[in-house]
UniProtKB/TrEMBL annotation, chains A, B:
Coiled coil: none
Protein family per UniProt: Belongs to the ROK (NagC/XylR) family.
InterPro entries given in the database record: ATPase_NBD, ROK, ROK_cs, WH-like_DNA-bd_sf, WH_DNA-bd_sf
Signal peptide: none
UniProt xrefs under SUPFAM superfamilies: Actin-like ATPase domain, Winged helix' DNA-binding domain
The protein's name: NBD/HSP70 family sugar kinase
Length: 417, 417
């Protein structure tokens, strides 16, 4: 049996303590022990490590009833900076965060249809990353790392985009390409896992052992939080709910299968739902997903029958697909995330809740809530930045120095030391 | 965040050490530490506890190159007995095991169609349990517990069958009813989880952090082994893959949904596949699932076109459904288990592998193997007995005495002490 090693457990505990401190600063070691279930001695050790890293600071004392005053710690927001990159089919978003994961600067680049060669994408990322560092005026040495989210299957260890179906990328060495432009430690993963980690640290999955984060964009998928942590699967491919069959022999999917969930509830699938309902609907912008989803959102607000019908039809598929997740995973919470969910919002959520109730078994249905992501910014950027934070925490104690671990360090953006 | 408590971790480690000892007796503390990743000190403590419980014994020493001789331990097969009960739609199987989980006695009762009132089922279980204890001549005090597997949704804590769709049971207090007849500690769960635990301890999931055990019987489902342990979900309902939608608006299912996986690959679904292919096939025994599946198995061996066609059609659905599990969970191994899988065997397996390859994404597909359960006996009995073993291990240290924890002790079967 491959078990978690004691180092894995220490790393997970370190995440957990920092997560709590970020969520509720200032706080005491005693409160942290109560909140995490860890012993006071373990908490004290981990707090000591985080203090040494300047990720948190001592901020005073609080009285404890009759006992001696308790030391308080808080996240040291300015103790470092993190960059999160969300590469999507239609845009690149880059955000720079402080250690409390507040956004200090953001930059966006639009990707035109067809603009999908790796060098083009890398160029957009490099430009936007340079922009946020410059905007925020952050000292280069304070940037702890850059997390990059790219759609599809990724190999984290090698930094390779193994397969991105929208662009038909195969084995693109994305981090190597990015390291030509970006001198900070780089971490690669995909939006399903970035979104799930964002919800786990800062959003609707906080405090839940089992949660599913449904990512609704051009592609769709489900980040799985199981047993209090991210479930990656054996080859970091878990969560490809978008490519599970919902309608056997249904619509053809880019992955080669038919009837995948994504073909009905991804942005192009929603456009198809609208087209089947009303082929000449003025809401339909044939070559523009974003414009069509925006038109649907506006249309629902105005009670436009095409919009109401298309969203209802989408929710019918989405509800059946989410019921599958509820029945299989039995989560406490299902979070609807990413740009399509954000734009269609409450009206979509209500239809989805009704549709899930029609399909799911009563017992797991009763145990789960379905909510919209409460994260106000781009969850994939936030999650990607969190991967960079986790990377920085993971390297603690590995060589006694931080910032040495992943290091693909040839420079453009980082100024000379 | 609800974390595992240190007691949970100690219990999991205790399972792990005993699992290793059962798998490879005799063994040394040093080998156990290497196999489990636990420290030698932790292993020594856990081995001491298991020795105190007479679950294992010291069996001598082996030379260690140059060091002092290492003590060897082995499972103490006769240190206790466990009973596993598999209640299915068409039968009740009861097996009595020693502590090495060897079968010492078995009994089976057939359930006639319509014979589904809780008192009837309980009567069958009590008769068969009495039979195995008598056959094996085991002293009542040595029976550590009885694990009971019943289809559908169960509430383990209260011992209630919350919902059994085949019999339309709702909130049947099964363990209370059984405790009128059986004096040993009773543990309730369902065949998905029993089958998964059996594979995890003794079968194809041993040594894998992520595995899916696909249970093919009258009902179907998927026991999930994730992160090295059984995934139960928030209300012990996880794994209801049989009630995930594969064909939206497809065949009506007993659960109220349409197009559930179970309606195509459960035994009645397979009969329907055969009926649609060849309405008057002599292989079809309209009121007898077991006879039909047996006829299909014999028919495949004889290259009967009805049988070949029906199995291929079943594999088409099953392959799409298993590809969904591969894409979503990204397991190392998918195990086909239970009586339908056992009877249709290799021919079904081969068709399923081909069908999965047509539907799954390449990366998770390449990472996973699909195999038949290697467990030679009834996996649900074995898994249920394992729950009883886990229950006995879990109660260690809770009050300093074992056999006190679940205890629904009114007696028929157990002789007076």
């Amino acid at each position: 049996m491959k078990r978690g090693t004691s180092r894995d457990i220490r790393t997970a505990n370190r995440y957990e303590v920092l997560r709590q401190i970020i969520a509720a600063s200032p706080t005491s070691r005693q409160e942290l022990a109560a909140a995490t279930g860890l012993s006071l001695a373990t908490v004290a050790t981990l707090v000591g490590e985080l203090l040494d890293l300047h990720m948190i600071t001592e901020v005073g004392f609080e009285d404890s009833a009759g006992g001696r005053p308790r030391g308080l710690v808080a996240v040291n927001a300015s103790g470092g900076a993190l960059i999160g990159v969300d590469i999507a089919e239609t845009y690149v978003h880059v955000e720079l965060f402080d250690l409390a994961l507040n956004v200090l600067a953001r930059a966006a680049e639009n990707m035109r249809p067809g603009e999908s060669r790796p060098e083009q994408v890398v160029g957009h990322v490099a430009a936007a990353a340079g922009s946020v560092v410059a905007q925020a005026g952050v000292e280069a040495a304070r940037v702890l790392g850059v997390g990059v989210s790219v759609p599809g299957q990724v190999d984290r260890a090698t930094g390779v985009s193994a397969y991105a179906p929208n662009w038909d990328w195969h084995d693109v060495p994305l981090l190597d390409l990015l390291s030509e432009h970006i001198a900070y430690p780089l971490y690669l993963d995909n939006p399903l896992r970035a979104g799930a980690v964002a919800e786990l640290w800062f959003g609707a999955a906080r405090g839940h052992a089992n949660a599913v984060v449904v990512n609704l964009g051009t592609g769709v998928g489900a980040g799985l939080v199981l047993g209090g942590g991210l479930h990656r699967g054996v080859s970091n491919s878990a969560g490809e709910w978008g490519h599970t069959t919902l309608v056997l022999d249904g619509r053809p999917c880019r992955c080669g299968n038919h009837g995948c969930v994504e073909t009905y509830v991804g942005a192009p699938g929603i456009m198809q739902n609208l087209r089947e309902l009303s082929p000449h609907s003025p809401l339909l912008h044939p070559d523009d997903q974003t414009a069509t989803i925006d038109a649907l959102a506006a249309g629902i607000a105005a009670q436009d029958p095409d919009a109401v019908g298309a969203v209802r039809e989408t929710a019918r598929y989405l509800g059946a697909g989410i019921a599958n997740l509820v029945n299989l995973v039995n989560p406490e919470v299902v979070v609807l995330s990413s740009w399509v969910a954000a734009r269609l919002g409450e009206p979509l959520l209500e239809e989805v809740r009704e549709a899930v109730a029609r399909h799911a078994l009563q017992r797991p249905l009763a145990a789960s809530r379905i909510v919209l992501s409460p994260i106000p910014t781009d969850p994939a950027c936030l999650g990607a930045a969190t991967f960079a934070l986790e990377g920085a925490l993971q390297s603690v104690g590995q060589r006694g120095v931080r910032r040495t671990a992943p290091a693909r360090v040839r420079s453009r953006i980082a100024p000379a030391p």
